[in-house]
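Protein modeling request. Please complete all fields; requests missing the sequence field cannot be processed.
Requester role: graduate student
Desired output: 3D structure, token encoding
Chains: 1
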Amino acid sequence: MKRLLTILRLFAGAVFIFSGFVKGVDPTGSAIKFREYLEAFHLDFLHFLVLPVAFLLPLLEFLIGVSLFFGIRPRAGVKGLWFFMLFFTPLTLVLALFDPVSDCGCFGDALVLTNWQTFGKNVVLLLAAWVLWRRREVLHSPRTVRHDHLLLTVYGIFFLALSIHSYRHLPLLDFRPYKVGTNIPEGMTVPEDAPHDVYETTLIYEKDGVRKAFSMDDFPWQDSTWKFVEQRTVLVKRGYVPPIHDFSIVMPDGTDITDIILASPKPVFLLISPDFSRASLKGLERAAGLFATLQEKKIPMYVVTASSEEEAVRRLGSHFPIPWTNMDETTCKTVVRSNPGLVLVKEGTILAKWHYHDIPSPTLAEKDLLASSVSRLRQQAEIRLVILLAALMLLIVSLPFRGKTVKKG
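Delivered output (409 residues):
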């Protein structure tokens, strides 16, 4: 039993650390997913809770995982795990049965599960939580309560700082198909040997007031007494879906310029805003200043948004100077986690992305844009390295004091 409890504690802790972390480094994406939940359950009046929950729920998951995995107040961690699973397991069953959202988002964009897979995962975690809850009295921490509280506080501050940085700039780890370095045309390519969608067609015929379903191979085509009623086609098996399948940029007059942009040998800037009415005015001002400099250098820049051009007039009181194009709102949100966000593309490859807080100044644009983009990537790599070192330091502090599973004395 001692070994089983240790395995269950480490397993549940690792899952919760991973789940909390991948959502915590992308709070904007978490907020988008929580908004989908509220809309699916017709709870739109709770939209004001979306952003706080996007920060607090991953933090709670992460701290429960840390508590279990490192044995820091393990009984409190088991209690959190038990109540967490009691709430979310029935919720994921409802999602699996009625499918109001296609992906629960429990692992962010790092690992996408179907609703039934998510429910199965939660059933396993619920069983683990039940066993740990029944035997929680034998779990203890060799540290003092004060020491445990200090460790959890440090972990919490570290995690919140990471989430806030990712929210005010861009996610330090990008699990989406539009991460920097991605070649968009390659991401849209379907291999020749890729499996295709498989559909099943059912033909409904009626005879003497009785309706009967037939397959395409056995319908009564020679019997005129059967009258055709309808045809039903159902997707049986989903084929290969390329990582990028919805990237399309269209001018207001309906002209599709996607291929022109992706094939351009010159760098192209895309100012992406899923909803122009909610776009940061500060970000729009910075983008307009950059656009003026880019025009002098004959470098193209486009607004890419799901909103109409009239929205710019309503928001700004005047025509926005940057050429206007349209893209699906969900795609805009997926490409860059900022409203607006700036993306630099050259020959179909994403070279850099900026949050509106970090849009390059016109002064910087007068220099080598590609060099500045490479410098930006280097800065992001250095930040990730600092965070990794900080995480390793926390790990070193915690590992020597890992909780043990012992019999109550």
